[in-house]
C-alpha cells in the first residue's frame, strides 16, 4: 500500500485499485486519505462517489470505512479528498511544529499529548512552571516566525539514523511503532526538523496566526495550551 500523502499533501484526487473488501472496510493499493493518527483527524471524502466516513491504521494497513458501497476487490476507484477539512489539518499541524520548536528552545518543554481539531487544537507541554506570560511570549515568537515564512519539505531516512538524532522526536514518548523502518522527517527551512507522518503546508506563512484560546495547569510539569488559527 502506497501512502501518497507522505510525499504530496496537496493531492486532492487520485486513482487506485481495491485490494480488499471486508464489509464497509476497504483497502486500496494506494491512497491519499490520511488515517487518524498522531493526534490528527483522518481525511474524509469519497471513493467512486461513495462516502468515506473514517480512515484508520491497522498494523501498517490503511482501512477506509465506506458508507453504502458496492465495491469489490479489483475495482478501479477515484478517490476525492474533502480539501477544506484536509487544509485546516495541514495548517493546524504545521502550527504545532512551529510552536513546539519555540517552546522546546525557550521553555524546555516537550510535547506530552495533544489533539488537532478543525477549529481548535491543544498541546500538552512538560513545563515545570505554569507561566501564562511566558506561554504568550512563545506564541508571539511563533507568529513572528510564521509571518517571515519558511519552506516546508520532507526527507525520508533509515530508522537507525533517525534514532541517533534526539531532536527529531519532540514528544515525551517516542510514538513511532518499531515496525516502521523508514522515518519521514518534516523540515522547516532554517527552523526545525521533526519526525512526523502528518500532513503539512508548503510554507509556514500559510498557517495564518496562532491565537491562544485558553491555558490550563494539568498537574506537575504538565501545561495545556488551546489555540485556534486566524
Question: Features of this protein?
Answer:
20% helix; 230 residues; Threonyl-tRNA Synthetase, Chain A, domain 2; alpha+beta; 6-stranded antiparallel β-barrel; 4-stranded antiparallel β-sheet; 2 domains
What does this structure look like?
This protein has 230 residues and is of the alpha+beta class. It has two domains: 2-81, Elongation Factor Tu (Ef-tu), domain 3 (Beta Barrel), CATH 2.40.30.130; 89-229, Threonyl-trna Synthetase, Chain A, domain 2 (Threonyl-tRNA Synthetase, Chain A, domain 2). 20% of the residues lie in helices and 37% in strands. The protein is built from three helices and 15 strands. The protein has helices at residues 83-107, 132-148, 159-162, and strands at 2-3, 13-22, 25-28, 30-31, 45-47, 50-58, 61-66, 76-81, 111-115, 121-125, 152-158, 182-188, 192-195, 210-217, 223-229. It has a six-stranded antiparallel β-barrel. A four-stranded antiparallel β-sheet has the order 9-10-15-14. A hairpin with a 2-residue loop joins β6 and β7. α1 (83-107) crosses α2 (132-148).
